Amino acid sequence: QVQLVESGGGSVQAGDSLRLSCAASGRTFSQYAMGWFRQAPGKGRDFVAGVSRSGVRTDYADSVRGRFTISRDNDKNTLYLQMDSLKLEDTAVYYCAADRRFSVVDVTIVEGQYDIWGRGTQVTVSA
C-alpha cells in the first residue's frame, strides 16, 4: 500500500495562495481515489476535496468550491491542492488520504472510506 507525506503548508495572509502537495510512495498510486481533509482547532476533520483515480472527476466542499483546486499527477505519484483567496477560516491541519477502489471515475467524499492517511500539514491564515 502507499504511504502519504504532505508538504507545502505555512503561514499566509488572507487573500494569499498556497499549494499543498502529497507525495505517495510505492507504485500503486493510480489505484487510489484521493482526497484532502482538514481539521481546525477544536473541531472534527472535514472533507475539503476529492479526485478520482483517473483525475477526471473532482468534488469539493461548498466552503472551498471556486477557491481550491485538487489535482493529481499519477506519473509523479503526487496529489495537489491549490488554495487561492485564502480566508481566516481555512486555518487548519490539512491531511491527504487514499481510498483504494475499482472505479476510475468515482470520487470518495466520506472520511470513513479512506484507509490511508498522511500526518498532515499546518495552514495558518491571518488577517
The count of helical stretches stands at 0
Q: Strand-residue fraction? A: over 45%
Residues in helix, %: under 10%
How would you characterize the largest beta sheet? 7 strands, mixed
Report the order of strands and helices. EEEEEEEEEEE
Shape: globular
Label the structural class: mainly beta
Commentary on this structure:
The chain has strands spanning 4-7, 10-13, 18-24, 32-39, 45-51, 58-60, 68-73, 78-83, 92-100, 116-117, 121-126. With 127 residues, the chain is mostly beta strands. The strands form two sheets. Strands 2, 4, 5, 6, 9, 10 and 11 form a seven-stranded mixed β-sheet that branches. It has a four-stranded antiparallel β-sheet with strand order 1-3-8-7, with no helix packed on it. The N and C termini lie far apart (40 Å).
A few lines on this structure:
With 127 residues, the protein is mostly beta strands. 0% of the residues lie in helices and 49% in strands.
Sequence-ordered SSE layout with sheet pairings:
Blueprint lengths: L3 E4 L2 E4 L4 E7 L7 E8 L5 E7 L6 E3 L7 E6 L4 E6 L8 E9 L15 E2 L3 E6 L1
Parallel strand pairs: 2-11
Antiparallel strand pairs: 1-3, 3-8, 4-5, 4-9, 5-6, 7-8, 9-10, 9-11
